[in-house]
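Recall the central idea of this unit: under ordinary conditions, the amino acid sequence of a chain determines the structure it adopts. In this exercise we apply that idea directly, starting from the sequence alone.
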Amino acid sequence: MNNYEKPFLVSGRNTLIHKQKKVDLVIVNDTNDPVVVATRHGVKIFNEELPANKAEAKSRYLELVDISSSDVFSECKTLLFVQALNNKEYKVDYSKVGTDLFIRIHQENYI
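Accordingly, the structure predicted from this sequence is:
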C-alpha cells in the first residue's frame, strides 16, 4: 500500500497527518500505552475494543496505525504530534499518561 492509498501521511520524525474524513485513525504506540483515535473532530483516547484484523477495521471505518511498524516510524514514541482534520495539531505525550497533559492542542491552526 503506497502513501496515496493510506488515510494518513508521516511527516518528519514524530508527526502524523490525518487526511481522510471517512476513516478514523486508531494509533497504537506500545502495549502498555493507551490507544488514541484521530477523528475529524480531534484526538482522544480510544475506549472501544481494538479491531481484530484489517477487514474488521475497514468495516468500522477505522485504520490501525502501529507507530512502531516499519512503514510508520519503526520505533515507539514518547512524543507524537497529530495534525487532525479540524485544523488543529495535537500533542500526545506518552510520558504524561493519566494526566490532563496527555493529549492537548499544540497549535490552533497549523495551516
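The longest strand covers residues 24-28.
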